[in-house]
Amino acid sequence: MLTRPxxxxxxxxAVLAAVGAxxxxxxxxxxxxxxxxxxxxxxxxxxxxxxxxxxxxxxxNGMAHVPNWQMPLTALTNGGAGxxxxxxxxxxxxxxxxxxxxxxxxxxxxxRYSTAMPSVLAAASSWxxxxxxxxxxxxxxxxxxxxxxxTLGGGVNLTRxxxxxxxxxxxxxxxxxxxxxxxxxxxxxxxxxxIGEVKHYAVNDQETGRNVVNxxxxxxxxxxxxxxxxHIAISIGNPGAVMCSYNRVNGDFACENPYLLQDVLKKQWxxxxxxxxxxxxxxxxxxxxAAGLDQEQPMAAHFGPKLKEAVEAGRVPLSEIDDHARRxxxxxxxxxxxxxxxxxxxxxxxxxxEAARRIEEKGIVLLKNDRAVLPIVxxxxxxxxxxxxxxxxxxISGGGSAQVDPPGGNxxxxxxxxxxxxxxxxWFPTSPLxxxxxxxxxxxxxxxAGADPKAAATLAKGADLAIVFAYQWQSEGMDLPNxxxxxxxxxxxxxxxxxxxxxxxxxxxxxxxxxxxxxKVAGVVEAWYAGSxxxxxxxxxxxxxxxxxxxxxxTFPASEADxxxxxxxxxxxxxxxxxxxxxxxxxxYAVNYDEGAxxxxxxxxxxxxxxxxxxxxxxxxxxxxYSGLTVDPAAKTARFTLTxxxxxxxxxxxxxxxxxxxxxxxSFKRLAGWARVTLRPGESHSVTVTIDERVLRTFDxxxxxxxLAAGTYEILAGPSSDRTPLAxxxxxx
Length: 733
Ligand code: BGC
Description:
- The chain has 733 residues and is of the alpha/beta class.
- It has a six-stranded mixed β-sheet with strand order 10-17-16-15-11-14, with helices on both faces. A four-stranded mixed β-sheet has the order 8-7-5-18, with no helix packed on it. The chain has a four-stranded antiparallel β-sheet with strand order 22-21-26-27, with no helix packed on it.
- The chain is globular and about 80 Å long.
- Beta-D-glucopyranose binds next to loops.
């Protein structure tokens, strides 16, 4: 028998000394013991803290890139959006925050690199929990590699208003789908030891007048729609933080709204983390503190010296300060950010790109495919005309605080502007033209920029296939005037389609788009804001290496006239960005959400309006059939058979909806669950979907309680919200 020579493992003295010192130190700092529960650690640390140390946890210290928001410690923000001093004396780490809605913001400005994931709406259109997790994990890794320990991501506002400039940052119109996607994103992000967050709490559904607008909505409607999405996201993701929004809700600003913050978030839902204000969304000291705001960002106008003075004068009880500080400490311990300081490092670029590609491939939605115009069959399609959308250089991204900087800068630099900054369309250097040429080396692929629709049509005429790239740019800080493609894009598509019946439109949009040309084109592919590897994902879909499987997470209306608010609630331009207005004037700025919980598909069904494309809709290169629904009342599950009736392997997102029992006042169905199932050609599978009880309940305003009404619930299953071929029932006693 061979024996291995005994090898002595030598540990450098310095390392031993450091570990020893740490252990000794932590012996005196029991709150730094990771074996204890975060609640216990927070309590232990809090007991040691002075009033000044507590207050230091309750406000920001400026924002690096905003000249008006500089404070003495702003330099410590690491180029991010916010910085909260820790408690050095007690070994409590500072919180270094960065915007990271679809990737880490401001990386270019800081000389770093970030992966742009597809938009959150694209990820939601995958209906895929694993993708959501990978989304969060990738961003979490990059947050830490850039030296941050908290995200300002996790947007989960429902798409009430599709013209909202931030639609791309959110996960669509259904509370169960949006809450599930964002919940899993945050769960996996926070697992990287960065504090997770959800925002913008709540009913922050348009950018127009966001600092003054008063969202008026009944408690029941709000609980069953917008707030339910938050609750589901929070219960899955358990994030350390919630960001309250700029707007008022039923009179009070969201960041000093006792109903939203104390009653619902902290009491009804038992949220133990901290609430931070949106940037400059804090409006008072005593009112906000009592209402449940824990931390002002990014400054200390209300929660700095003024808060201390209010405590000393007895206007704010110390117990309130303790509650705020305890919550901030809890988030640091819960996430692991307190124990595992981020180390700046080079991110794994390839790993990020692969994740971005995979998720985009699952999120792309095939909306139309007449005469099987797609996928492109290389042996038959020899000449392709690629037209418009700057497809020769790149793909567009979403703007505002979510903006991720492309490596090398904006692929289309607007004349006279240097950097890729606020309120300016940013194009990633991800050319779909180049990606297609790489996939189809034997095809002749020509490009026309589309400036002159006639010239583009001439090119299309001689081709076997025309692909028009069209885009819709969205950004925080503005709403879309309408859902039409801007500029000459509709005209361009019309003319190209008239010249070549085999025309496919690829949309790069942040929200729904109206399509006056829909009847004239053969195919439509919704690619959303596609992220750093969007061109590769799209090319894989177009040539059929990947079979599309995404389904719309939001309704595409036929026209703006069908929306609950045909005209977006606008304010006088001079009022748009004005600061807080006194209470009585808030009336003037009200948006009345009379449609209540009828958000998206619920509205269209209740109002009997036919959308252009329904929530949950999306095609595949194969086909599926549904049969044999049975409902198990004990397990609350729906079971049915799904068969791949086509010739290719494909993935179907099978959806289950529920209707409340007769006697309820509701004229729409609610998404109750879904399954993502991959089947080979001809294969059948028995699919079991759990009916989520949270979406069956109704909220009673008088008692502030949820009811699960007894009665017979209709259970429906099918491929989209407007096509549910299977029906069954669920009796609840
Ligand atoms: C946005 C937030 C963002 C913050 C910090 C605000 O304008 O509404 O979503 O996290 O700025 O950049």
